[in-house]
Design a protein that fits this description.
single chain; mainly alpha; two-stranded antiparallel ribbon; about 55% helix; about 5% strand
Length: about 280
């Protein structure tokens, strides 16, 4: 028996407002909302008793990290999912079609590229201020699931990254990426919003309350994201044209396993005996 919410995606208009060829999509609204919500959360934390960083540091770090996320996310998407973009570098940053001159927007971001770009920007910012970059990362990562939640909700409202076909009763009607035909699919964007956003936020909050040693929060975040992404990929439709490894593993799952391997190695470095320390 189908309910109204099974057809909810069909009732969503991905465009918030359009003027001529220009349009503002829900994904952009969610992406920016996630960024500002993350900054607000960090500003509130900076006012807490014994906070290791003040509001000025939060504001100063926000801009370079945001730029690093955008640059890394776009280049990561091109390298992993659309190498043809690299032959026309202007298309990576220009929302206007070079051939027709019409507004087409910028499509495609990779979390793994954004993670690398944001991490590099954070490292150089901390170095320029003579701040411990691991301590700064520990301060920031508990807020990152907020941005991830908004981003995945943006994917849902944008009707992109749909799940795999399903006959289960909680499937929702999404267009097939290849044919455009609407059919029941896993709302994998909502699964990811729950796992990468809500669950990971709760886990990091619980770990933070135990005041772990330096670097543990960052390791928990990276490992938690890798696990959540690996699981969610079982329900997410693989990107068209992307390779499948061993007959079942997607690019996202391969990258998640690689991240988990790196994190496991790093954990042996940051482990300092019993689970205690002075991270805020």
């Amino acid at each position: 028996m189908t309910e109204w919410w099974h057809y909810l995606p069909e009732r969503i208009d991905p465009v918030v407002v359009a003027v001529g060829s220009w349009s503002l999509r829900w994904y952009a609204v969610c992406f920016l909302s996630g960024f500002f919500a993350t900054v607000v959360f960090l500003l509130l934390r900076s006012r807490g008793k014994g906070a290791p960083f003040d509001a000025g540091t939060v504001w100063d770090a926000a801009v370079p990290v945001f730029v690093g996320i955008l640059v890394g996310g776009r280049f990561g998407y091109a390298l992993l999912y659309d190498p043809a973009l690299l032959s026309t570098p202007l298309a990576l940053v220009s929302p206007v079609d070079s051939g027709t001159g019409t507004y087409i927007g910028i499509h495609g971001m990779s979390f793994f590229g954004a993670l690398l770009g944001g991490g590099i920007a954070l490292f150089f910012f901390a170095r320029s201020r003579r701040i411990d970059h691991i301590a700064l990362a520990d301060f920031i990562v508990p807020a990152v699931p907020i941005a991830l939640f908004f981003g995945r909700m943006g994917n849902f409202l944008n009707l992109e990254l749909p799940g795999r076909s399903t006959s289960l009763p909680f499937g929702m009607y999404f267009p097939d990426p290849s044919t455009g035909i609407w059919e029941p699919r896993h709302p994998s964007q909502l699964y990811e919003a729950f796992l990468e956003g809500i669950v990971l936020f709760i886990v990091l909050a619980a770990v933070r309350k135990r005041k772990p040693p330096r670097g543990v929060l960052t390791v928990v975040f990276l490992a938690g994201y890798a696990i959540a992404r690996f699981l969610a990929e079982f329900f997410r439709e693989p990107d068209p044209g992307s390779p499948i490894f061993f007959g079942w593993m997607t690019v996202g799952q391969l990258l998640a396993l690689m991240l988990l391997l790196i994190v496991s190695t790093a954990a042996s470095v940051v482990r300092t005996g019993r689970f205690r320390g002075n991270a805020d």
